[in-house]
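In this supplementary section we document a worked example of the pipeline. Step one takes a protein sequence of length 112 as its only input; no multiple sequence alignment statistics are reported here. Step two produces a three-dimensional model, which step three serialises into structure tokens for compact storage. The input and output of this example are shown verbatim.
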Amino acid sequence: MSTDRLSSTLSALADPTRRAILARLAAGEASVTQLIEPFRLSQPAISKHLKVLERAGLIARGREAQWRPRTLQAEPLKDAADWLDQYRRFWEQSFDRLEEYLAELQGKAPKP
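The serialised model returned by step three reads:
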């Protein structure tokens, strides 16, 4: 995964409205009209959010006659999760070391 793609993904995820749109699309495809319903935003504002998500590769625009459904494209999310996973492992190892240290201070043997 290129840094540019990761940066685009993380930038798109930085906005709570875009995260909410992705959460809605995780339940299935939706039109712009359906996506705008839970928000107090104008059509142009939602369209801007959708363009950011499309450029990041997180959603795709379909075409079925007059209906233009958006669908979730999860691959960039997996790539971001894989990148973040290395930091999860770091924190888990740090907590394991802290647990061992605290057990040593208390005179107990650490958990296996």
